[in-house]
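Message: Study each token:
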Amino acid sequence: MKLEKDKLSALPDEPGVYIFKDKQNETLYVGKAKNLRKRVKSYFSKSKDSRISINFLMQEAQSLDFISTNSEEDALILENKTIKARQPKYNILLKDDRTYASLRVELKKSYPRISIVRKCDDKDSIYLGPFKSSNSLYNTKRLFQKMFGIRDCTDNKYNRHRHRACIYKDIDLCIGPCNDNSLKKSYMKNISSIKEIFKGKVGGLSKQVAKNMNLMAEQERFEEAAFYRDQFKLLNKNYLFDVRSVEKLKNLDVIGFHVAKKKVQIVILFFRGGYIIDKADLYFESETKHQDIEIYQIISQFYSKKLSIPKKILLPNNFQYVDELKEDLSTASLSKTSIKTARRGKNIRLTELAFQNAKNYIKSNMKSEKEIDLKLDNIKKILGLDNTPRRIECFDISNTQGSNPVGSMITFINGKPNKGLYKRFKVQTQGPNDYAMMEEVVSRRLKRIGQVGWEKPDLILIDGGRGHLNKIYKILNSNISIASIAKPSKSAKIDRIYLPHEKASVDFSNNLEELKILINARDEAHRFAITFHKLKRKEAMFL
């Protein structure tokens, strides 16, 4: 890449984000800088970044864009959002790049409200989290509602029920403060209890949950008893050490990582009040020999998301970029967070625990990959495909007697859904003609083969029987494999797979695990189509 000197000198001495692009104007790399001019110039100096990927980047890069920001914190956040949106070729892309959610209680409201949020930047609120598991998150929220009757409604809904409480009061998920001001004192007492729990004092809660469980069982309200039983197990499962040994670790993130060839796994354990409330699994595959730098970048990227910020972050003693991480996280929201490496005793035990989690994750992941590879190879043999079906695209149509027709395309990569490659189609075909609708959707997809995100599939799977299959087979290029999947019939107890020019369905009776991959793809395409159709139907009602 050749940039004129005047363009380099025109870069501001300000924090911001820089973006390298190729000759097609596609984003290659996104980086953040404390000083844009100095950082970008470093790519062209003799002592430039030694990472192998950077050498390839500079060979491909043809142009440079930049965005100035008001602060380093803004640059960090913008970098994360830009990477997530554009998925540049030379950035480290997490396999699990979700934004973790937390529970929030808004204390500034006259009757504080509990809600689920993905940013924890309100100084007048308290937070519990972050949670990786949505089940843990929603069950914990429901537990607080059942135990303390705290509202989760918006202010608009709250004000609409001034004269009559909503159904949540009838099902014991809220005490109904919206139409009974006499509850103010008891409501705020419950809020005080929640504040103590958010600080980690959960012993009393655990005892009360056990008491409720037994009471519901005695009253033969077994469904509610089962709910309290599950919550009791969850509370005690997360209890890791004796409280006395971790009472000083009430708000702590413990980080561990493991590298196995190109596979890198980072685990962050979220301690709140001496308990592990959840963990984050950050996995990526590295193409360089500088995994230590990439691990630092991933951790920095993770904490840019304004999660529930801990008072302390504990790193393993082999982490080399503590000072750089401190500089990255020296923002308003993280400036009071202590960042240290484990040196002895209890801290070593904690980082060893995180390391063991990371190691086990990679071990389990590698075993799972081998099992998936075997299943995909078996599908190839059973269906007589030219290639192993690593990219499977499944199509479905949804309409109501021809009205509001939509199509869905979901993509499975290596046997698992890749939601970033899902596509929705507004169908133009008029009238209740499923065959024509499916033909339209698949035709529109095939026209885009070769474009970014529209790579050629190894197998196209159609939700339907022989009729759908024959209709689509006529428009297919001969080098694309296709099959259809139909639900069980009276004579066939399992889902049926059809191939072109074959009258009988393919026998998967001895390969039910392989068939399950195809069934999961069909069910996901159906779910995605139905969801979109309901949305379009709802929109049509208000036109």
